[in-house]
Amino acid sequence: MVESESTKLNMVCGEDKNEKLSRLESILWEAASLIRGSVNPTDYKKYILPLIFYKRLSDTFTYEVNKLIEEGVIDTVDEVYELVEAEREEHGRPKSIRYVIPEEYHWDTIVKLSTNVGEKLTEALRGIARLNPELSGIIDVVDFNETHGGERIISDDIIQRVLQILNKMKMGPEDVEPDILGRAYEYLIRKFAEDSGQSAGEFYTPCEVAWLMVNLLDPKPGSEVYDPACGSGGLLIKSQLYVKYNYPEEAEKRPLKLFGQEKLAFTYAIARMNVILHNMEADIRRGDTIRNPKFLDEDGKLRQFDYVIANPMWNQDFPEDVYINDKFDRFKFGIPPSNTGDWGWIQHMFASAREKVVVIIDTGAVSRGSGTKGTNRERDIRKKFVEKDLIEAVILTPENLFYNTTAAGVIIVINKNKPEERRGKVLLINASQEFKKGTPKNYMTEEHVGKIIKAYREFRDIEDFSKVVTLEEIRKNDYNLSPSRYIPLITEGEYREIPEILQDLRRIEQETRVIDSELNKILIELGFEGYLQGED
To answer: For labelling, which of 113, 178, 346, 380 has a CA lying 20 to 30 Å from the CA of 24?
Structure first.
């Protein structure tokens, strides 16, 4: 594991802004705000994000062509198309130019238009996708000329003004580094999440939560990292940044191999754009992971990766036949309830991992069913993970971190290769108080994230924060893995999640019924039959 005094959270999540990053963020938000006033808040991201991507591709193409001319590889811009075709025939893809942007489709051409702007812009983006098939379904996902009820959704005037705002800053490789552009892009995604409310859960994990999870994952250079619910690609990107910052000498020679799957079409497009803007490579595929996993080996079996990390949709509904009829043998530990697919996701991740899984999920996933009589599907699945000694750590996060819920989450660390000294034990961390109040959401600072990571690496008891529990202790608590059960915190204004309170009430009611039954037997023997029912 990497040891360092700093988690580098500020570097990754934007606290240490330089002048260029601040200016870029300002320009992007100015452009986004203009569109924001014309469309539904949940929709404006789909117009602005492709435009930023388009600007970067155009400026990068210009930079790459000028470099080839300076080096004497070609004499004019026109020759670049012959070069690209020759490289495609030889290598299967261009080598000198990553994406081809002809003059008629180039940003510098479209930004000068004063009429038919939406039509010509849409035509340009679709033309770029035709010339660069790998961009199909990414850059051409929006019709800027679209109408609704006979009226344009975004007028040519608004589009033209947005283009002029974005034109204030060059976005080529010599103008802005991938890290800065990528961070500005993620800044914008976060701003969209603030506006989008419930729908934000489709694509955004708060930066500090993502960075915490990646530190817990601790991927090594050259390894494979897979996110089966990758959203905008943030967890994959931060995994690569983790290796870059913590293994600087090896990262360039042996970067991570990134893989992801995303169900929603536009969210998939965002992920692909995000990865390219960060100057990274990733194999991201579109589809419903639980019903139709896209990563299979040559024999049609589920492919495995070194590390798996995800923030899947919490408490997702899946019909039971999805699990029962699964062709990939993923749900060996049991069939989850149809109204909450949390342990369906976890089992898919486990089946896809060679070494380690880090997942953040609803808090109920670690406690539902404990304390109840008879069988309970989630408790019984959890029991098997515990008895096989696969759970390494469970971390309760603060409330109100996520944009689609005020509820806290739990991070579960599953390790198929637990160190010898950790076997037969589970580390529980109650980090529910590790946050600062923010607007509209709470957030964790570098100090909070660092405290959690340090506790995980040291794997020891810390008063009112962490506790190492044995499997026997977990058995006594009927496989309840909620950190708050083992590390209760009493703070001013503290309250518990309603599902957990209801669970405890059900347990108390069941215990009361058992006691009443036993007491009733004794009373009957003593001649007081019906006394507990209030009979005279």
So the answer is: 113
